[in-house]
Write a structure and sequence with these properties.
By secondary structure, the chain is α+β, with helices and mostly antiparallel strands. The protein has one domain (4-146): Muramoyl-pentapeptide Carboxypeptidase, domain 2 (2-Layer Sandwich). Helix content is 32%, strand content 14%. It is built from five helices and five strands, in the order H-H-E-H-E-E-H-E-E-H. Strands 1, 2, 3, 4 and 5 form a five-stranded antiparallel β-sheet that branches. Helix 2 crosses helix 4 (101-109). The protein is globular and about 40 Å long. The two termini are 17 Å apart.
Length: 154
């Protein structure tokens, strides 16, 4: 399969890094454009957003899990350049406090899935990730992780 992941992420110098990646260039182009639009949309309503994590390696996920920083043992959609986590900039500092429903509305307007409801607002969720958006439905994740699907270029 020839796509952004195989061409730009797999085999890149940082592919196995345990570093935190905030660079939007690690996002697949349609996901990157949507993230930029979300940041602009948040600014329009008086909220300053910035990316706290774009790409995440298998090694970084294992490190975070071992430290208890995540309850997800296996890396998810971040590994494929299809997800981004945000923080609000408040008084010069990163904040995850307060209501994140605005991110759900902005994500939906850009065709992305919000981790607050995983694109299924009527379904109860045991795991909610309010600062997270991704360009992959929960149903598509299985095929993504198996290497049999990647979203079409927009």
């Amino acid at each position: 399969m020839n796509n952004f992941y195989t061409q730009h992420i797999a085999g890149a110098a940082g592919f196995h890094s345990t570093d935190e990646f905030r660079d939007l260039a690690w996002l697949e182009p349609a996901t990157r454009s949507a993230a930029v639009a979300i940041i602009a949309g948040a600014a329009a309503i008086g909220i300053t957003l910035f990316a706290t994590e774009t790409y995440r390696s298998v090694e970084r996920q294992a490190m975070l899990y071992a430290k208890g920083a995540t309850h997800l043992k296996n890396v998810g959609v971040h590994h494929f350049g299809l997800a981004v986590d945000f923080a609000k900039l408040i008084d010069g500092k990163a904040s995850w406090a307060g209501d994140w429903a605005f991110l759900g509305r902005l994500a939906e307007s850009q065709g992305l899935i919000w981790g607050g409801d995983w694109g299924l607002p009527a379904v109860p969720h045991t795991f909610r990730d309010f600062d997270h958006v991704q360009r992959c439905t929960l149903g598509e994740q299985t095929r993504l992780f198996a290497g049999t699907w990647y979203p079409e270029a927009a």
